[in-house]
Design brief:
binds NADP nicotinamide-adenine-dinucleotide phosphate; alpha/beta; globular; Rossmann fold; six-stranded parallel beta sheet; two-stranded parallel sheet
Length: about 290
């Protein structure tokens, strides 16, 4: 199987390329330098994005700076919506598209885990632009897969556990929001889920692809703390004490039952993922 990975230099993209290679698939990793997906002509002319050269195109490319997007919404629209339109135009009658989306398409008011049929209502520019991308895909392609993930963390980029470990190392009290809930997702688990989806040639549609455990940011921080060498104090705080430019969903827990019942279930517990993750990070930081 031949797989093109867009956004191959990102946090998810790097782990995905590594795991696809390990699983013996033929991989063509593309960075934004290789192919800027905003460039309509470059996308149209890209020979790799053809049925002859690829069975699947996995789109991990995105504008992911959630707060910055409030200041430069056009840039977020260009990458998360309009560039996805370029891809859809190219991939009509081409290889299948697997696109990564987000829990931020929801407003977080449901009060229980979101399923794929729940209504979307993004609260911030990032969520709106990612939803725009989903809409183009649904309108234009016959057999796409959209995987919505959440609270992603991996060793290859900026992530909440990495930030926590760095803050813990300073030894001061760390204050963490305790009234926003979600499902932490390891990039390694998500990459394994993507490989399973490709191998199963899963039926087209939208699926929630997040870790099994749900928690608040504070609970997530406590788990990281207890699995690390940290000794500093942790303090739970309300969102109102940590204002951010982008409004985030209060409770964006998602149910991954649809994906699991389709035979895709690589999810390990957050604790076992963290044990491995933290050992790697602490070694890297020589703690
Ligand atoms: N991180 C999270 O917590 C989270 C949560 C939910 C969903 N997601 C979704 O998961 C996916 C992967 O996220 P991530 O955290 O791995 O993102 P990331 O680390 O920010 O990586 C984004 C990638 O997109 C590429 N890219 C940006 N603009 C591009 C362009 N114009 N043309 C081609 N490539 C471009 C970047 O390439 P360069 O580095 O070369 O610019 C980079 O490789 C995204 O769809 C994101 O929306 C993430």
């Amino acid at each position: 199987m031949k797989v093109v990975v867009l956004g191959a230099t990102g946090m998810l993209g790097k782990d995905l390329v590594r795991i696809l290679q390990k699983r013996g698939l033929q991989v063509f990793p593309l960075s934004s330098k290789d192919l800027d997906i905003r460039n309509e002509k470059a996308v149209r002319d890209c020979r790799l994005l053809s049925k002859k050269n690829a069975d699947w195109v996995v789109n991990c490319a995105a504008y992911t700076a959630v707060d910055q997007a409030e200041l430069e919404p056009e840039n977020a629209w260009d990458i998360n919506s309009e560039a996805v339109l370029n891809l859809c135009e190219k991939l009509t009658n081409g290889p299948r598209l697997l696109h990564i989306s987000t829990d931020f398409v929801f407003d977080g008011t449901k009060g229980s885990p979101y399923t794929e049929s729940d209504e979307t209502n993004p609260l911030c520019v990032y969520g709106q632009t990612k939803l725009g991308g989903e809409h183009y895909i649904e309108a234009m392609l016959d057999d796409p897969i959209i995987l919505r993930t959440s609270w992603l963390y991996g060793t290859q980029g900026k992530s909440f556990p990495k930030t926590m470990i760095k803050l813990f190392a300073l030894g001061n009290k760390v204050r963490v929001v305790n009234d926003q809930w979600g499902c932490p997702t390891s990039t390694v688990d998500l990459a394994n889920a993507i490989v399973n989806v490709l191998e199963l040639n899963l039926e087209s549609g939208t699926y929630h692809a997040c870790g099994n455990d749900s928690m608040s940011w504070f609970e997530f921080a406590k788990l990281i703390h207890s699995n690390s060498a940290a000794t500093c104090e942790l303090e739970p705080i309300p969102t109102s004490d940590y204002p951010t430019p982008a409004k985030r969903p209060r409770d964006s827990r998602m149910s991954n039952e649809k994906l699991k019942s389709s035979g895709v279930s690589p999810w390990r517990s957050t604790e076992s993922n963290l044990t491995e993750f933290i050992t790697g990070i602490e070694k890297e930081m020589s703690l």
